[in-house]
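Q&A log
Question type: sequence-to-structure
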Amino acid sequence: MEYSFNKPRNEFEKLLKRAIKGEAKAQFLVGDCYYRGDGVEKDIASALNWYRKSALQEYPEALCMLGKCYDYGYGVRFNQREALKWYRKAVEYEYAPAQYELGYCYLHGRGVKRNVECGIKLMEMAALQGLPDALYFLGITYFLGEIVPQDLKTAVLFFRKAAVKNVGNAQFLLGQCYYTGMGIVQNYKKAVIWFKKAAASEVVNAKYYLGEAYEEGLGVEADLNVAEKWYEEAAAQGCEEAKEKVKVKVLAY
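Response status: OK
Response body:
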């Protein structure tokens, strides 16, 4: 569930009145306002107070957020057991972000005995609900083959699902799979399409590969001026390979 922020003070006060009356959703949103400093001065202690009030009413978003606070030490002392308790409560409501967080804990043994099967199952549950983080995580997991056996075709499947949800890194990696023929039939034109989408999200490696595509005429008509533009953008973001390309171009002058 997504919410808009940057509320004026009067909107926050209306929300606060609903929260004081005991509305769980409003309590969670007031907590988020305090957490982000949105319509009110940022106050982590007050945020936690309202998250807890909402969580005690079993509001899934609040249950998960309270878990994250304990998991990452946001305003409270780091406490993995407490984090797991709140994640599990949120998972009972099939709340996808909680499935993702709890799955991550199982996969990496965070506060619980490592259990890859359970972790992947939770991630897949979150992915089935379309959670972008879970889709991308599963793509990377199957792509690298470190947690589960490598399966490039499955990786491509998850990258594609995450890419259409505008996950920049997934767009880049899907493009890379098309570019190299990993897990899918090589197709430079489709690679360039996904690189451009990723570049729009400022993914630096996508910009570098676009430079290479335009330099070599892979999937597009060769255009050294366009190639130079992409190399310069990638170099400006710290890409060492792009810096070398730009350096060679300068020396050529």
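Response note: The two ends are 54 Å apart (CA to CA).
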